[in-house]
Design a protein that fits this description.
Elements: H1 30-34, E1 37-44, H2 59-68, E2 73-75, E3 81-83, E4 91-93, E5 98-102, H3 117-128, H4 137-140, H5 146-150, E6 160-164, E7 167-171, H6 179-182, H7 193-199, E8 213-219, E9 223-228, E10 240-247, H8 251-259, E11 265-266, H9 272-278, E12 288-292, E13 295-301, H10 311-320, H11 323-329, E14 334-336, H12 359-368, E15 379-385, H13 393-406, E16 409-415, H14 417-422, E17 429-435, H15 441-449, H16 452-456, H17 466-475, H18 480-495, E18 500-511
Parallel strand pairs: 1-10, 1-11, 15-16, 15-17
Antiparallel strand pairs: 2-3, 4-5, 5-7, 6-7, 8-9, 9-10, 12-18, 13-17, 13-18, 14-18
Helix pairs in contact: 10-12, 11-13, 15-18, 17-18
Length: about 525
């Protein structure tokens, strides 16, 4: 997932196993349709970045946008693309370049205004509008005319055509299998023209959507209240009338409120301090929900700077770190990272083994590189972010100690997220984390390793191989099944260049009252509020 989306990743990340799916169009359990819940309460440590579909690009924002807007497509529990605002999957013509959508009848915004094809076109065009400065812009620049429009060289997006009240067509600059994926993320939603015309800048504080819930009130830093939307096309499937979410509590306080029965759901992933106390307690067995995140946690080796512009030095660093000790530093809430394609991602190969801890080999490689015992190596700076943006200082200290044992000298630089992002590229070592935007292997590989992603701020290794880029671009014209062997070869090629020190795939544990039913982390956003009942 992109950099802005990662802000809450360490505390609230996404899961690969969903207990239940979205109330519609997925299968809904009988308990949801047969009873109604008045109010459910929840707690979270931080505000979502934005409730505006053009601006919200983090897991928590996606959870709220998904609850309040209906994207044309969405993902079911099996990570398959299914229609939602559209009545069916799009018709794809023009050699994979033209996508035509037919809207579901009867869609309405919560203020009563009908949802039209123009409203969906406006939603995508608004993301591309340079005045919005949307973090989603790069996704939709595959649409013909989008680049010119976002650069203020055109008055509209030529590749977006409204064919009628309920028909919409997108023409792409080239065939791209993943276009359906980016139309299934929550941001690909309609926006109400009358409201946007007057309240575009503050739309995220009081959004008007067409989803299962409306935002009844939002006081940043204090509380968000969601109210069941009677205008939602499938409102009869929504069991809970109101969800009240308290914002700004410490993680330990959140856990205590759930444990004491004051609150139903702890939206944040539980911290290690709480995990140790509840993981093996029979009392809390029914409170715990476990998922494995589709993301990579690693240390990026800056290949544009000495000494990591030397392959032998990078390889030495990769073999120097004890992954077992790293996992102990996070109380075992993870499994060793083995490859770019994380568990749950199509193409993940469970047969690939961890790189392993081989300090002797690391010392030998440093000697081959002309640095016996680390002689001649500069002191390396190691950038680590606070606040859950990346793995924390406890993990970084393990990496630091292991590297120093084989001859490296490492200085930690622990920074707030803003300073961390501003300093990207200045350090030789950077604590990295990257999760999926959508469940296609292209996303994890290209976003982290394509040359163009260096300028975009996602390729923290500064890895650039134009031959890899060419194959990545060509792979978009293939079916997913045909592309997976290509991605296996590409990831093997990339990992042979040792661009990172592999760490772990994180395990996520959520604390939820056993009275709450329908809790489950979606493959792409952690909460599906529409399923909750109690």
């Amino acid at each position: 997932m992109r950099v802005l989306r990662r802000f809450l990743a360490g505390m609230v990340a996404l899961g690969t196993i969903a207990a239940l799916g979205l109330a519609s169009p997925m299968t809904t359990p009988a308990s949801v349709t047969s009873r109604s819940t008045s109010t459910i309460t929840a707690v979270i440590s931080s505000d979502p970045v934005s409730l505006d579909p053009a601006r919200g690009f983090d897991p928590i924002s996606w959870s709220f946008i998904h609850a309040t807007f209906v994207s044309l497509l969405t993902f079911n529990n099996s990570r398959q693309i299914v229609p939602w605002g559209a009545v069916a999957l799009p018709t794809v013509t023009g050699g994979g370049r033209v996508y035509t959508f037919q809207l579901r009848p009867g869609l309405r915004f919560s203020d009563g205004e009908p949802v039209t094809a123009q409203a969906y076109a406006d939603g995508i065009e608004r993301i591309l509008n340079p005045a919005i400065k949307s973090p989603l812009l790069a996704f939709y620049q595959i649409i013909a005319g989008a680049t010119a429009y976002s650069a203020n060289r055109a008055r509209g997006v030529s590749g977006i055509q409204v064919l009628g009240v309920d028909r919409l067509r997108f023409t792409l600059v080239r065939a791209d299998r993943t276009f359906a994926d980016i139309m299934a993320i929550p941001n690909a939603s309609a926006v109400p023209p009358k409201v946007i015309a007057h309240h575009s800048s503050d739309f995220g504080l009081s959004p008007v959507g067409d989803g299962p819930y409306t935002v009844q009130s939002y006081i940043p830093g204090r509380e968000i209240t969601l109210l069941k939307n009677p205008s939602y096309f499938d409102a009869q499937q929504i069991a809970t009338k109101r969800i009240i979410i308290t914002i700004g509590l410490a993680l330990e306080t959140e856990a205590l409120r759930v444990e004491s029965g004051q609150t139903g759901v702890m939206i944040d992933n539980i911290p290690t301090s709480v995990y140790i106390g509840v993981r093996h307690s029979p009392r809390f067995a029914s409170y715990l929900h476990h998922f494995i995140s589709i993301e990579d946690n690693y240390v990026a080796l800056n290949m544009s700077k000495a000494p990591f512009n030397n392959l032998l030095v990078r390889e030495a660093a990769a073999y120097a770190v004890n992954d077992a000790q790293v996992l102990r530093s996070i109380s075992g809430m993870g499994t060793p990272l083995t490859q770019i394609l994380a568990p749950g991602m199509p193409g993940f190969d469970p047969g690939v083994k961890p790189l392993g801890y081989h300090p002797g080999r690391s010392r030998q490689l440093l000697k081959q590189a002309g640095h016996p015992g680390g002689r001649g190596l500069p002191t390396l700076t190691f950038a680590v972010a606070t606040g859950g943006f990346t793995a924390g200082a406890n993990v970084a200290q393990v990496v630091q100690q292991d590297l120093e044992q084989v001859g490296f000298r490492v200085q930690l630089r622990v920074m707030a997220p803003g300073a961390f992002l501003s300093a990207l590229g200045r350090s030789q070592l950077t604590m990295g984390i990257y999760g999926i935007d959508y469940p296609d292997p292209y996303d994890l590989i290209a976003s982290q390793f394509a040359c163009s992603e260096i300028a975009a701020g996602n390729n923290w290794q500064f890895y650039c191989n134009h031959a890899v880029d060419r194959v990545l671009n060509q792979s978009l014209a293939l079916s997913l099944a045909a592309a997976i062997p290509v991605y296996h070869r590409l990831q093997a090629q990339i990992l042979a260049d040792y661009p990172w020190i592999p760490l772990y795939y994180q395990e996520l544990w959520y604390l939820v009252s056993p009275t709450i039913r329908g809790f489950g982390a979606n493959p792409l956003w952690p909460m599906v509020f529409a399923n909750w009942s109690g």
